[in-house]
Amino acid sequence: MAKAKKQDKPIWLKYTEEEVKEIVLKLAGKGLTTEKIGLTLRDTYGIPRVKLYNLKLNKILKEKDLYQSPDLKNLKAKVEKVEKHLEKNKQDQRSKRARIISKAKEKKQKEYQEKEKKK
């Protein structure tokens, strides 16, 4: 397959590169993940892809230290959910095992991301 041609910015896009960066940072300040930011840009602001501006959401957020790994965030949420369940249901053995496994995955993910930061 041939490589896709670089797409030019459509005529109807009215935002500049700086305005897009500001919008992304504003949405990240509200606590949205990169996936949700992309959907919001598409649905609310009419920006189909940030790549049209030669930008990447991860790079924008990493510059301002606002980037959160979605994998780690989801694992944390799962651990919290299982622990909340275990408070009510102390004898639930499956949930105890699920908590142990989820915490192990979370630890592995943290270690992996720390290793990647050092590179």
Question: Short description, anyone?
Answer:
With 119 residues, this protein is mainly α.
> How many strands, which pairing sense, and closed or not: the largest β-sheet?
none
| Termini separation | 32 Å
Radius of gyration: 19 Å
The number of helical segments is 5
Q: Total number of β-strand segments?
A: 0
Order of helices and strands: HHHHH
Strand fraction equals under 5%
Low-pLDDT residue spans = none
- Helix and strand composition category: mainly alpha
Report the average pLDDT across residues: 89
- Number of structural units classed as domains: 2
- Bin the helical content: 55-70%
Overall body shape: elongated
Give a quick set of tags describing it.
119 residues; mainly alpha; 2 domains; 5 helices; elongated
Q: Could you characterize the architecture of this molecule?
A:
- The protein is mostly helical.
- The chain folds into 2 domains: 17-63; 70-118.
- It has 5 helices and no strands.
- Helix 1 packs across helix 2 (34-43).
- The two termini are 32 Å apart.
- The model has no long low-confidence stretch (mean pLDDT 89).
